[in-house]
Amino acid sequence: xxxxxxxxxxxxxxxxxxxxxxxxxxxxxxxxxxxxxxxxxxxxxxxxxxxxxxxxxxxxxxxxxxxxxxxxxxxxxxxxxxxxxxxxxxxxxxxxxxxxxxxxxxxxxxxxxxxxxxxxxxxxxxxxxxxxxxxxxxxxxxxxxxxxxxxxxxxxxxxxxxxxxxxxxxxxxxxxxxxxxxxxxxxxxxxxxxxxxxxxxxxxxxxxxxxxxxxxxxxxxxxxxxxxxxxxxxxxxxxxxxxxxxxxxxxxxxxxxxxxxxxxxxxxxxxxxxxxxxxxxxxxxxxxxxxxxxxxxxxxxxxxxxxxxxxxxxxxxxxxxxxxxxxxxxxxxxxxxxxxxxxxxxxxxxxxxxxxxxxxxxxxxxxxxxxxx
Length: 373
Description:
This protein is mainly alpha-helical. The chain has a domain at 12-38 and 223-316. The protein is built from 13 helices and no strands. The chain has helices at 12-75, 82-100, 108-139, 144-164, 180-214, 217-220, 225-238, 246-264, 268-279, 291-314, 322-332, 339-361, 363-372.
């Protein structure tokens, strides 16, 4: 492609600086496009290696965790303390939820059974918590002043915890005359609801972000006025209707098809290529002679470069690479970890889960294992 716009009417000296800017911007655009493609190839390669090398180890970890869940469910009745039983159900619910929201390859039947385990565990936790609360109430015989002091302490701790996590909770409707046990439960429900709202909001933003990347290019990139102006000028230049020469008409018809596709795709490079090609053959001597014309092209190139740089930096957040991000963050702490780094971390995790399963299988070490989970 010719890196300089066609200059007409003897104004070459006047446009020399702008032409150099245009040529430099064009080189930068080509370089940025190559960098974007290189980044895409890098992520694709990393994703393929992750699936082929890391996923089998990850699936083995999930299978071991399912074994732990089944072992806990089978062992819970052996515990005489209902407080310990509640701890068992907490672990069952937490571990089942972690497995389900991970990028696993477990069967549908296993997933259904894990969902049922969560529902059953949560019901048991609620039932046991009510029993324990009633027992604690009977043991406590607090004065009004002591009760208010405990309630205020609970409220202060809750406000500090929410502030640390960036969660806003309105406690203005708190009933300070409540029993500390009941007040703590009320606080727990309020905070849990606030966390749920924040999580839903973040998931909504994440879905919107991923939907953005799922949209076709022509839907997510609006035509700028400059791009539209360039397209209209090219239509006038290339349109075959008034062409008398049959050979040239055929060439223009083909070029017109390319022009339409390029505009629909917002393909600036193709539009500029068509302009460079057809401006040379045009008798419209002033087609690129206007100073605004070359400045317009430079502006288009700079905007395209900026959008490509944003696309490159945001590529990792494409929904296509969700598994790469999730596994990297969960098992290595960064979303762009290499498969080798993730694999090493997964192998350590597998060894830890195997050891946990061994400890839980032995009644003597089971309580210690529960505290370590």
